[in-house]
Each structure stands twice: as structure tokens, then as C-alpha cells.
Amino acid sequence: MPATTRTTLRxxxxxTAALPLxxxxxxxxxxxxxxxxxxxxxxxxxADAKKLSAPEVRIGYFPNLTHATALIGxxxxxxxxxxxxxxxxxxxxxxxxxxxxxxxxxxxxxGFIGPSPSINAYVKSKGKNLRIISGSASGGVKLVVNPxxxxxxxxxxxKRIATPQKGNTxxxxxxxxxxxxxxxxxxxxxxxxxxVVRTDNKVxxxxxxxxxxxxxxxxxxxxxxxxxxxxxVLLDETSLWPDKKFVITNVIVSQTFLAExxxxxxxxxxxxVKTNAWIGANPAEAKSAANxxxxxLTGKPLAAKVIDPAWPSIAVTDxxxxxTLKTQSEWAVKAGLIDQPDLAGIYDLTLLNKVLKAAGxxxxxxxxxxVK
Length: 372
Hints:
The protein has 15 helices and twelve strands. The chain is an alpha/beta fold. A seven-stranded mixed beta sheet has the order 1-3-2-4-11-5-12, with helices on both faces. Strands 8-7-9-6-10 form a five-stranded mixed beta sheet, sandwiched between helices. α3 (68-75) packs across α12 (283-298), α7 crosses α14 and α9 (222-228) crosses α13. It is globular and about 60 Å long.
């Protein structure tokens, strides 16, 4: 049987095996956003380029600034160049759960995604569906408030503060911060000393403008959109973390794809590491490149008054900042949103550290949560 046929058969079997998990995830979470083909954004392939062990690799990401590594790495060809003749097939998603569904169902190989969906998916699959193989972005989350209603941190008590989704990364961070103030909130309903209002980032600016919420704990560029409407940054989440770093986006891979095509995964990581290095060395050009990619994907670029303050608050990083993911999971347990998760083996940084070493960069840690 040809190698490509065996790969297709394995993916079909993987999709069938993952169906009960997928149905359970849909039933419990109520998600189902469809992926969008982003093939028009990919760079061309050189005519003499040689294929790696897989004819293609399907990579998912969000049309969002916190996914700048993917936005720029795909559109500007940094990743495709490392893949040679293996075709990069990009897809964009609107939410983490839909990206996880694609990974579980066998229609996605590698994805850029936040820590909470990664944790939830890994735990639900009992550690069988994904590995985190790299970092991508840190920071870019702020508490933005109506300055007429909230002037100090103490004023947050009794107010309505939005987060993107119950149990998502920002929701967990806000609940933990509320708890540290000595206030109480029911994690399920969001009711308590602060009213936590779970609101999609797409409608949060309208809710803020109408006055139905008093503020929001949200990622960029939503935070800067609220500021452009008269909001004020009351707290930058980076101030709450050691070294002012915490994971907001990492890179995951299907365990099946990783086992069958490590050379392809390594090539993608070479591409992301080179993309991040280019972004770090060319911040102004990178901002323009990311906005150009957003315009191509969504039909509209971010206004200067939004992207200019949003861009410098997000730091691209190869380091997955594993210790901060562990802390975020502990916060979710403390808030009563999840049971104590077994995250052993969620990371496999072997290929990343190989790429970093070859590039003369320091290796990164899995905080004791790597494969044994």
C-alpha cells in the first residue's frame, strides 16, 4: 500500500475513533464554528522543491493579532519555505473549540490556539489527541473599563465585567483576580460581588458602547477597540505575572501526525521560529504585515487607533511558557470550573528544542509536563 494511502487510511480511522469525543464536546460546550479555507493566503511553492514525508500539512489559526506568528508565517512564506514541496494548507477558525473539533476529526494537523482549549481537549481525550509543541504569543490581555463608572480597582466590585467565554483563558484570569480581592462570584452563573458577563468578543464593543457592561477583561485587539470608544485600561494582565509573561497562544499538533511525520512538524517549527525572529527584528514591518493578513482574511484591516496600541502589548515567543499554563489550570481548579487535570505529557518540546539549538538559541522548559 502506498504511503499516502496508508496516511489517508490512518486519518479516516482516527476520525472515526474521535467521533464519540467530538459529539461529547459539542453537547457539553455548544460550539461548532466552521473552519474557513485560507489557501489564498499561502505563499507559492518553488518548482524544484522536494516533498517531505507528507504531501501536505493542514495548519489552523485565528484571524487575530495574538496569532501573529501564523498570520505572517503563512502569508509571507516563512513556513512554506521550510516545508519545501510539502503543501501548507491553512484554515482559519473563529473559536478554539471548533479548531479542536477539526484536530480530533482528522481534518487538521497543527493549530495555533490558546491554553484553555488545549487543556480541556487534552483532558477530555485522556491525553490522547494533542501535544503542545511550541509557544507563539504572550500577553495582550487587559481590563478596560468605563472611566465614568470605574476609577479604581476597588470600584470593580458591584459592576458588570465581560469575558469572552465561560472557562476561557481570560474568564479564568478574571475569576482568579476577583478571588484574590476577597470577593465571591459563582463560576457557573457569573453572579456575585462582580457580575461576570460572558460575551463574544465580536459583540463586546457594542455592549460596552451601549453601557450594558461596565468593562471587559479581554485580549487584543478587542481591548484597544474599547479604548478607542472611550474606555480606559485599568489593569494589564502582564503586571500580574512573573517576568510579565504568560501564554496566550501556543502551537499544538495531532499526536498521530507527530508520530507519522516528525520531519514535517520540525519544518513547521523552523518556520515559526524564523517568523518570530523576523517579527522581533522588524516590529513596524511586522505590524503592517499582520494587518495586511487580517485584511485579506476578514476583508477589513484594523484601524490605526486600534492596532497601534494593541501590537506592542503582544510578544511573540517560541517558549510555550509552560509554568504559566500550569498556573492557569490551577486557577481554573480553584475557581471550581474544572477538576484537577492530569497534564502529564501535554508538552513535547523535543523538536522545538532541536530547532532552537540549531539556531543558536536556548532550549525551553516543559515545566515537568513533557512526554517521558
